[in-house]
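Forum: Protein Structure Q&A
Topic: Joint prediction for protein chains with partners

I've read a bunch of threads here and the consensus seems to be that you should model interacting components together rather than docking separate models afterwards. I'd like to see that in practice. Below is the full input, 416 residues plus whatever partners are listed. Could one of the regulars post the assembled result?
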Amino acid sequence: MTEMNVHADLCVIPLGVGVSVSRYVAECQRVLQEAGLKHQMHAYGTNIEGEWDAVMAAIKRCHECVHGLGAPRISTSLRLGTRTDRQQSLQDKVSSVESLVNGK
Amino acid sequence: MTEMNVHADLCVIPLGVGVSVSRYVAECQRVLQEAGLKHQMHAYGTNIEGEWDAVMAAIKRCHECVHGLGAPRISTSLRLGTRTDRQQSLQDKVSSVESLVNGK
Amino acid sequence: MTEMNVHADLCVIPLGVGVSVSRYVAECQRVLQEAGLKHQMHAYGTNIEGEWDAVMAAIKRCHECVHGLGAPRISTSLRLGTRTDRQQSLQDKVSSVESLVNGK
Amino acid sequence: MTEMNVHADLCVIPLGVGVSVSRYVAECQRVLQEAGLKHQMHAYGTNIEGEWDAVMAAIKRCHECVHGLGAPRISTSLRLGTRTDRQQSLQDKVSSVESLVNGK
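Posted by a regular:
Agreed with the consensus. Here's the joint model:
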């Protein structure tokens, strides 16, 4: 397998910096933007789509940058989806459910 | 503590039903709709907001209904956020990050 | 469905209390002990086994007690496994993998 | 930052292969073993400890090998913990909680 696409859902939680974490989440958005990856923030994480190594490099960079902003500890919750049967975009996944929901 | 609000991010994965899971995800959307809970699907889960017991009852109902549709096994990934310092809606969380991202 | 057994893996992360979280994790162990649920801590969470409502009541109690100890915000990562095809204990799951690993 | 240590908790879920997933979990144990990483399976995942790039390379290899065994789709739940304040082993984390639990 030379290339593997991944759908990720990333939730980075900085510890030791108080209750407000939006500054650190914003930094991760900046990292994903700079990485040129398709991504979409929601209220409890961020969807990311791309080639495995590029997505993982960006997630590592998120940890490095959040530590760089002063967070001494990070606990990240991550979902990773891969499939070999067919290509599917993040939008495809939402659309296929929505058509079922609306069709009822 | 009499009431506790929770922000959840729910990703229900049915096993033993093949690769296509959209039918089961759609069923969960229906359950959340019927429960009258604020919820927003994204490409790797669904944000839910409400009182703890109501949210948890709906998540249990999701498992029951997905089993009812024929899935013999389910593995769910769930994030749960509670706070006592202040009230915050799902939209507040996204907005506070977006204002930081756009302000840069 | 009258009763549903669940395997949970619980990782409670208190925010706004500094980098050391062991005091809060210990409190959750105490809650699970008092609830009389089978549970086993590991280095990144705690396995719990029991009837759905009892497990969920204990997890709610964990959030309440961790807030009670002074944590203003909590972000929990939770896995939930249910199945209708057969009963399986936490130990069964580990054993069935180990027999495959050792049989190779 | 030249090197970053990570504590991971990995739960790989193959879809489209029926309800029994132990064969695929065993394959991941083999991959982690071959990678020479410290790891410890529990009933709902596997703790892994090591340098970030080595851990992530092993997780990618898990996805590749599980697809290689015939699973057309995988959904992984992953926790990732990093800290810059001090070194801490997986065992340290468990021990610091256990001493608090037993001290009560």
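Chain A has a mean pLDDT of 95.
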